[in-house]
Amino acid sequence: MDERTERLNRAFAALADPTRRDLVARLACDDATVGELAEHYDMSLQAVSKHVKVLGDAGLVTRSREAQRRPVHLDADVFDLMSKWIERYRRQAEERYRRLDALLAETSGDHEQHTETEAS
Amino acid sequence: MDERTERLNRAFAALADPTRRDLVARLACDDATVGELAEHYDMSLQAVSKHVKVLGDAGLVTRSREAQRRPVHLDADVFDLMSKWIERYRRQAEERYRRLDALLAETSGDHEQHTETEAS
DNA sequence: ACACTATTCAACCGCAAGGTTGACAAGCCG
DNA sequence: CGGCTTGTCAACCTTGCGGTTGAATAGTGT
């Protein structure tokens, strides 16, 4: 499995957890230390530290060092990778949607809708 | 936890698996049945069926029915949601990056780089 | 009604993820 | 040094996920 794929694996998996998405949301406003971040959650500081590590391994976040503190800050690069992946298939899905629409409009003049899918 | 959050949870989690991303990639080209999809993978048809179900629960995919077949087809809507979420934080991360850049350029004339992060 | 095809359900297994607690490491500061 | 703060490591527990196999279901066609 190529490197790009594994980066996407880690990035998507990292953001699948709502706590980690929330961390990202906070870090978007400002850098913060693990301790500061942990105050906002009903879980141990160690748990938050683990979450931050996951974000770090996914390349979504980097650490620096100033005195004893190790502030976490958001890194945009991998977001770019994900964004491009998603956009690609979003566009293709929409494109095929439009083509189907056009096809239905052509062949039958009075179709109701083509959205009679059974979404569970 | 609100509905939007849970939809994002499911969507990101669904795409965290490389097999499911590959399914999405295939479905972007054309609709397909579970059986057709399964031919491309080294795993049981039931496993693929499960993967498709996960994509379905995440709202990334819908099913229809024609004869005995139940073709799977890509749905763009949730991609939109994810795309917007990611873009938002990507932009914020880049924005803060630029501001930091400007700040460093202002205060010290000869900084080397501010990317001395320890990415593991 | 029957057999055939396509797909799902159910039970199970192994393993990794997210959480806990307790001990440890690294930098500051009196 | 001794102690405080900050963060990580290690061991453990429980739950959920991805995979398997075998049986059940649903729709087609003869």
From TrEMBL, chains A, B:
The record, for PROSITE patterns, names: HTH_ARSR_2 (PS50987)
Q: Which InterPro entries match?
A: ArsR-like_HTH, HTH_ArsR_DNA-bd_dom, WH-like_DNA-bd_sf, WH_DNA-bd_sf
- Look up the domain of life of the source: Bacteria
State one Pfam family annotation.
HTH_20
Q: Which residues form a coiled coil?
A: none
Show where the HTH arsR-type domain sits: 1-93
Looking up NCBIfam families in the UniProt record yields: HTH_metalloreg
What is this protein identified as?
Metalloregulator ArsR/SmtB family transcription factor
Which organism is this protein's natural source?
Answer: Prauserella alba
Q: What is the lineage of its organism?
A: Bacteria, Bacillati, Actinomycetota, Actinomycetes, Pseudonocardiales
